[in-house]
């Protein structure tokens, strides 16, 4: 046993019982969560194996979901997790989320702004520049498609209504929701945010594809312009 970690180092584990070999010969279902995480980490650091580091990460964050929600900055606070490992973990997290989006035909029901925040915030809130995400809803109010419309500078990005509604028309969306992050972490809407929202509301009314909401995503919170009274007639709660 390692004197520093309390977990056996990889070299002390019989080859056939090491995580990679177990996955190869027994399949992924035979591995524990820590073992799978150890494979994703690749290696540990001096005095600590990848498996011991995986156990420490799970102990520190309490669950896999909490670990995956952690920012790169938070992950790198752990000894043995440098930027490369943190980026690798975030990439694995993103792949898992996209796989979940594909499951069930990628439909995600939303009945309130908090649902939208839960859906889209992990994808854009850590961005260092403004990123605009478009979400398309079907007649049942589920998000069935989402994509990044544009990336901008540290404090702005230009999105034209024709980009929003071209995609909505192409995919036969019933309504749309827009969201973008504020890299500063403060979700307070700017004048430009309010003007864009008004333009999208009027454009959507003409085309018969309403804008249900526009969320500004901060570091740990959000502002819904529907909740702020800037958008009328949202279909959050379906009858």
From TrEMBL:
Organism: Candidatus Neptunichlamydia vexilliferae
Source organism superkingdom: Bacteria
Family: Belongs to the UPF0758 family.
Chain ranges of the MPN domain: 109-231
UniProtKB keywords: Hydrolase, Metal-binding, Metalloprotease, Protease, Zinc
Cross-referenced InterPro entries: MPN (IPR037518), RadC_JAB (IPR025657), RuvA_2-like (IPR010994), UPF0758 (IPR001405), UPF0758_CS (IPR020891), UPF0758_N (IPR046778)
One Pfam match: RadC
Protein name: UPF0758 protein
SUPFAM superfamilies, A to Z: JAB1/MPN domain, RuvA domain 2-like
């Amino acid at each position: 046993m390692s004197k520093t970690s309390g977990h056996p180092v990889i070299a002390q584990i019989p080859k056939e019982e090491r995580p990679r070999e177990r996955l190869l010969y027994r399949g992924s279902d035979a591995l524990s969560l820590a073992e799978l995480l150890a494979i994703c980490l690749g290696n540990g650091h001096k005095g600590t194996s990848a498996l011991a580091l995986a156990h420490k990460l799970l102990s520190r964050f309490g669950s896999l979901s909490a670990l995956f929600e952690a920012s790169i900055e938070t992950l790198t606070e752990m000894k043995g997790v440098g930027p490369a490992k943190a980026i690798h973990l975030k990439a694995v997290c993103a792949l898992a989320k996209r796989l979940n989006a594909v499951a069930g035909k990628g439909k995600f029901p939303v009945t309130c702004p908090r649902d939208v925040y839960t859906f889209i915030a992990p994808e854009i809130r850590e961005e260092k520049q403004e990123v605009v995400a478009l979400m398309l809803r079907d007649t049942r109010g589920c998000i069935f498609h989402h994509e990044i419309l544009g990336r901008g500078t540290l404090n702005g990005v230009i999105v034209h209504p024709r980009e929003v509604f071209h995609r909505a028309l192409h995919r036969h969306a019933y309504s749309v929701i827009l969201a973008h992050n504020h890299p500063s972490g403060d979700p307070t809407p700017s004048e430009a945010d309010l003007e864009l929202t008004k333009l999208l509301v009027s454009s959507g009314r003409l085309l018969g594809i309403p804008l249900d909401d526009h969320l500004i995503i901060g570091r740990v919170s959000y502002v819904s312009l529907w909740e702020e009274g800037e958008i009328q007639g949202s279909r959050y709660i379906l009858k």
